Structure formats: structure tokens, C-alpha cells
# Entry
Amino acid sequence: MAEGSPPPGPDPVGPAPAVRPFLVTAGRVAPTASGKPVPVETQVVATAEGLAVLDGLSFEQHDIVAACRQPQSIAELAARLRLHLNVVRVLAEDLRAAGHLAVHIPDSGVTHDASVLRRVIDALRAIPDSRGVLRDSD
Amino acid sequence: MTATEPAGMIQAPSVAAVRPPLPVKMVIAGGFGVGKTTAVGAISEIEPLTTEAAITEVAAGVDDLSHTPAKTTTTVAMDFGCITIDPTLKLYLFGTPGQERFGFMWDDIVEGAVGGLVIVDTRRLDDCYAAVDYFEHRRIPFAVAVNAFDGRVEHTLDEVRWALDVAERVPVIVFDARERGSVRDALLVVLELALARTGG
# Structure
């Protein structure tokens, strides 16, 4: 669901949900016990348990676990499901606590490691100038 | 499938069906309408997505007796894209929301980023001060990229550097936000800075 891109224009504000965003989180806004939100690139992926009980989940919980058959970031989830970023954070934490989702918070010590940066640099250098050549990812 | 957590990941419980890639984040900043989303779209493997992020706006003013800046949280649109490096590594490009005023805090978006690219329109240099200040203050490696609208820039790079008063170590380059190769090269400048900082 929620395919398609937002309307064109400079820095558009995304489509406003009809439901006030934090209704679906029962008013909770703190995503984690520490109060520090997980980074927007945090990866979430459905667990086998989550997929097994998918039909019993409702609404946003269902949509999140279903979308997370493929790992993706909190930000991608929010965009694709048209949910507020912080709503996704709260619900992802609930689903993680229930065992339905695995939440992988990136360790910035590792993402800033020289070997990781070199891999990113090498891959970017291999990107051609134009989109004429399709790369066979996937 | 294994119980072992992938390198660099913490808080990874139980049995995930698929192992996610390690996400590496870069931030594209600059004023309103300067070409941030264009740049992301030029190189992203997906059409740029939009989501809403919470940013903190610090009230300007010197008449605050408590010396505690008044903060309000604002919801803004944030565009982003990504590039799959390989199945274990994915680069995310997040555009900071365009801002008209100083004092926005983008910590929610920027936390953990390996570097930033500040896009500049030389006709509106003022618009990028907030981004330059932010990255300098947070000590995040960044470069200033002058977007050559219609292939032209109104000022020389030396003039831009002088006007923005950026440190000598900060690269100031010209690029075209519409051109994939140009955006790629601008990102590489930032990544090389980040790499140099590791001593690697």
C-alpha cells in the first residue's frame, strides 16, 4: 500500500494522516525506555514469530510486520506506510518487545569504521555518470 | 539464519527471517529549494521518499533571563533515498528540511551520520549558514557544494568560501544536483574527509 510519490513541489509536507498520529500509539511518544529515539536509518525486519501471527495483528502493527518481510529503515517504513516517523518508532518498539520484529540499531562506531567507509567509497566510484547502465542489484 | 548478531548491530533479538544491511547515513543540507531532493533523486536507487520528522526549533533572542533557550518541536517533511552497496551495506541519504530561520536542531536526523553535504545557491548564500554552523558545531565532516543552476555560478569559490567563513579544511566545490556523476563525486569528497578523520 501507499505506493506512489508525494506531490511535486519544493520541500512538500507529506500527506497528513486523517487520524491524529499518536492516537495509534495510545498517546505514547517516547519510543524507548531511555527516551532517546532510535536513528532514522535503524533497520527493522519481521521475525518468523511475527510473520506467523501476522493475521492476528491489527492495522498499523499488521502493516509494519508485513512490510518488514524485507528489512528496511524506520524512515522507509514511515514513508511507505504514510505514518509519522515517531509513531513508527513507538510501534516498532512495541513489536520488538512482543517478538514480532527485530530492530537493529546501527552502532556508529562500526558505520564510521575506515573499512566500512572504504567499501562505500569503492561502490560509489563504480556508479556510472548516467543511469544508462542498469545495475543488476537484487 | 543464525543467532549471531551481524557486526555493528546491537539490540538484535531472536530470529529474523532476513539479515538487514548495515546502514551508513549521509545528510544533505541547505536552504529551501536549493536542490537537496534533486541531488538525492539523482543518485538514489529509489524515488526519493518523504516522511515527517520532528525537529527542535530554538527560539532566537537575547532577552531570555533563564539563559535556557525556549524550544519547540516542529514536524517537517524530510526527503531521503538510498544506495545498496552490497547485501550487507546500504548508504542512506537524508535531506534536512529546508529552513527559513536559524536555530533548527536536526539531531534526530543527523545523529550517527558519517558526513554532510551543504548545498549552496550562490544567489542566496544566507540560506546555508545554519547548515554550515550546525555541521561545524557538531564536528561532522562536511563539504560545501555550490549548485550550478543552469551551469552558472554567480560567485567564485573563493568568494563563497570567504562569505561563508568556512575553515580551510572544508572543501568548497561546484556540482550539478541534477547530474548523477556530479552528485556521486560530491558525496565522495565528503566520504574521503570522513575516511581521513579515521586515520585510515
